[in-house]
Structure formats: structure tokens, C-alpha cells
Amino acid sequence: MNYWLMKSEPNAFSIDDLEKMPQQTEHWDGVRNYQARNMMRDQMKLGDQVFFYHSNCDTPGIVGLMEVVRESYPDHTAFDPESKYFDPKSSPEKPRWFMVDIKYTRHTRRVLSLAELKAQELLENMPLVRKGNRLSIMPVAKDEWDYILRLEGQE
DNA sequence: GCCAACGTTGGC
DNA sequence: GCCAACGTTGGC
After folding, report:
1. Is A55 within 7 A of strand B by CB distance?
2. Would you give per-residue pLDDT tens digits along chain A (155 residues)?
3. pTM for the whole thing?
4. Class for domain A3-148, per CATH?
């Protein structure tokens, strides 16, 4: 099993929005970065566990847990000229962009802020806390995953 | 293939 | 709102 972290701006789509979706499930569309796409397309598997991260907000940080419930398939928003994610270079015959389906598991008991994560020596190798990293999807090592869940239990 | 210009991300 | 860090684009 793999572990991941996925970012979303809560203004656009928050953990609360995900919880309210039918089946508490939504497709993770709009990824337009090749590195992120490749991980999603090639490595995200059914049952993989995912941290939901709120970016570009008052307190950026991990706010919940989710699970991959459908492996990658073409991102149809790329085919829609009305969509802000439209990409004329992607077509149903030759899709360029992909998405997975994600299901809500739970909120974390508290927000694990970026500031708190940055203060953890054991997390210093996470791309998340490294300067200039802009990946919207990134792998999380199992020991990092476990460490963060233990951190959640502390006040 | 190089690289300047430009656009985006995202913390602060 | 600012700006650093990147990624992408396109002229040459």
C-alpha cells in the first residue's frame, strides 16, 4: 500500500466539500502537472491512503484522511472548452491528463499545520516542507505517515 | 538545444 | 499583495 498527500485550496474544494459529496467520493480533476500526473496515473492504487492538505489559506496544513477508490482514468475536464482545466492538446482518443477517485475517511482531530510539520525533524525529507516545492500530489513514506498520525494524537 | 519571458503556485 | 521558486512556452 502507498501513502500520498494531495493539496487543494479550500476555497475551491475543501475536506468539508468532500465529506458532503454523494458516497463521500469525488474525482480529483484538474491536475495539470506532469510529475503529479505520472504519480497519479502510474502509482496510485486502490486502497492507497491519502492526506488531504489545505493550501493557500489562513492555516495551510493536513486536515483529513482519504482513500483511493478508483484508479486513474482520463480527466474529462480537459476535453471541455467551458472548463477552466480545458486543454486542447488532450482528447478522448489521446488523453493527456488523468484523475483518480478519492473517498473521504475522516477529518483529523485537529489541523496539522505546515508550521508544525516543518518543526518536526523526522519530517524534514518530506517534499512538502522543502523550500519551493509546488507539487500538488506527493508520496508520503510509511514512517512519515505513521509519525504524522502520532503527532495528531498530541496537543 | 538554449534561455528569456511569462504564468502559476502557495507561503507569508 | 508580495515575491521566490518553479514549470512552460516560444523565438532563435
Report:
1. yes
2. 999 999 999 999 999 999 999 999 999 999 999 999 999 999 999 999 999 999 999 999 999 999 999 999 999 999 988 888 888 888 888 899 999 999 999 999 999 999 999 999 999 999 999 888 889 999 999 999 999 999 999 86
3. 0.93
4. alpha beta
Does residue A41 lie within 7 Å of nucleic acid chain B, judged by its CB?
no
Q: Identity (one letter) of the amino acid at A152?
A: E
For residue A102, give the nearest of A61, A49, A60, A32 by alpha carbon: A49
Domain ranges, ordered by start, for chain A: 3-148
In chain B, which nucleotides are within 7 Å of a protein Cβ?
Answer: 8-12
User: Which residue has its C-alpha nearest to nucleotide B8's C1'?
Assistant: A134
Q: Which residues contact A38 (CB under 8 A, 6 or more apart)?
A: none
